[in-house]
């Protein structure tokens, strides 16, 4: 069985959850071969790359252009989308040829429209996986109507070609796939290490609350020296991971992650029982949905950007840790659920 993954390169969340899904799929079928087509950082796939998993660099979609993790450039995003969708037919034809040459049995898209258009042209069934769709994201920006009027219609047409959509929690969009959408639980990375052992490896040896700043692929200008100088918090360095440890181990070792809401970090906080101190992230329609839905499943609290960038974290961290546990416990077996759907998929059911 040959399975193609098309993965958005926007942020780390798409790649992180797909790596977890691939890790779940591989033991299920010894004859399974997986090809990943993406512009995401290749090192993100190090846990799964090998004889049965190949990663090939292509531009699968354009996502959003970020100035940093807290600011989005809507005009540049629209211009980039206009460029991409002006040649969408040619891109889809090239990908369809690649699918046919490799005798692909199934395509999974998280969640580039190109995946579904190419699969349809190649006569291969396709499955969408994600918590949002790009038509939903782009519709919030007037720049797309002005600079990329062809983008959203092309995206909607491509999404409508998916045979099934596996929709993750904290979701928005999916209107073009409404008739084939199935909800599944979180796919998230959970640490398997002892928390105290990880803290020792990180040099944390006192009882102060431990904070992990997490601003992903695009970063933010954080005054970490000022935060540490107040003396009330132990602050981990997200770029210094001890040998043999993974990022989710840092999340599990922290009392609080300081970040902006996005599927990747929110799901990892849920999976590892870590509180989230979040700040705003610019005009991004997903943000409002997360703010409304997170408190059900995650202990979280808002930190104004002015306080984030001035290093005034300690009061909010302490207030967050005094909050009660969330009222619901989210399911975390989404990788197994998705694997079941993919491996039992009947490509003739549309």
Distance between the termini: 20 Å
CATH homologous superfamily annotation of the largest domain: Glycogen Phosphorylase B
CATH architecture of the largest domain: 3-Layer(aba) Sandwich
- Summarize the amount of helix as a percent range: 25-40%
Give the biggest beta sheet.
7 strands, parallel
Globular, elongated, flat, extended or rod-shaped: what is the shape? Answer: globular
Order of helices and strands: EHEEEEHHEHEHHHEEHEHEHEHEHEHHH
How many structural units, i.e. domains? 2
Tell me about this structure:
It is built from 15 helices and 14 strands. It is of the alpha/beta class and about 350 residues long. It folds into two domains: about 1-190 and about 335-345, Rossmann fold, CATH 3.40.50.2000; about 195-320, Rossmann fold, CATH 3.40.50. The strands form three sheets. Strands 3-2-1-6-7-8-9 form a seven-stranded parallel sheet. Strands 11-10-12-13-14 form a five-stranded parallel sheet, sandwiched between helices. Helix 1 (about 15-25) crosses helix 15 (about 335-345) and helix 3 crosses helix 4. It starts with a strand and ends in a 7-residue tail after the last helix.
